[in-house]
């Protein structure tokens, strides 16, 4: 009886031993596809777009690797395509799906857990079983800041709220995410958005196991959003200055006070960002129950007037001729739905005050509003752009002119930075 048992047990033990060896050597098709075994881990580094001059002053911007680390790191999608190069019609982000990568300041590395490993060149593909040095491709996409898409509270989890959903792990398509503007009540929590751009210098598509075991996949992040109003200036026209100077006499000063300044934005509320990209951010419109939303930023209120222009009897300006406000900008999605333009309405109240004797005597308040369409300005619908607002008070009634200027908004110091540095 015992001999009969050995007759069955011995082959069974051999099968189990062979299975154990196969699961440890990294050659299993399932392990190759999922990156759960292997000898060379996949490591990442991050850098910010280089070569441009200005960085936004808007609240909660990400202009450096330090900002990126402080905002919780970034998310990674990885697509394993075997012997085939990346194709948006036949990929799934099932190698990595919204993998959370954070910065370890002690070891000075970007890290995630559990580790994924480079395919070793073995495994099943549609071309059949291959072995050895045949290239097995993995493509990566990344975004920042990381979102767990738990968008219940825009106050406690702003990234989760602003980035509420992703393409499905099993979905055959380019990985994508949705982005929505944060609510007015939480506008100080607004979320910047970055995406990793594929380039010859920093390739992230169709990568194979590198020969250098210390090699890292480098994500070069670019801004996906644009920003409006993070710099607002108010000044007098030359005609206005001349008219005020004519009213100055001995012992009399004239000044212009800004008593109220607010900007009301009408902006696209939600859109989809496709993460596969070799150029500008790939924004797509999506159906939404609220295609646009209104956001209001108050720079000056009635209780805190600002002197925009002051001239004394000698004709010398004693205060700045130009007031500027920094850091109150609003992020916007650089795309608009048909029939729903994105606009900025400037509401301004000012008065001309006269100093005679021992006190200032304010004049009659003058107020007005001017609305501009963001699309009227070239490049306003390109990601990574500032839309600066300039207000020129033109005369002593309610006439003022609102224009805008466009500038590049790119992080760094103008010459880039070490992709490893924090």
Quaternary structure annotation: single chain
Given as residue ranges, the uncertain stretches (5+ residues, pLDDT < 50) are 1-30, 128-132, 411-422
Number of domains: 2
Radius of gyration computed on alpha carbons: 29 Å
Descriptive report:
The chain has 422 residues and is mainly β. It has two domains: 25-223, no CATH class; 227-408. It is 12% helix and 38% strand. It is built from five helices and 24 strands. The N and C termini lie far apart (70 Å).
Strands, helices and their partners?
Layout: H1 2-24, H2 29-34, E1 44-48, H3 65-70, E2 74-82, E3 96-104, E4 109-111, E5 123-125, E6 128-130, E7 137-144, H4 158-162, E8 165-166, E9 176-180, E10 194-196, E11 217-223, E12 226-236, H5 238-246, E13 252-268, E14 270-274, E15 282-284, E16 292-300, E17 306-311, E18 322-326, E19 330-332, E20 343-356, E21 359-361, E22 366-373, E23 385-393, E24 400-408
Parallel strand pairs: 1-11, 12-23
Antiparallel strand pairs: 2-3, 2-7, 3-4, 5-6, 7-10, 8-9, 9-14, 10-11, 12-18, 12-19, 13-16, 13-17, 13-20, 14-15, 20-21, 20-22, 23-24
Structure, briefly:
This protein has five helices and 24 strands. By secondary structure, it is mainly beta.
Features of the shown structure:
single chain, mainly beta, 2 domains, about 10% helix, elongated
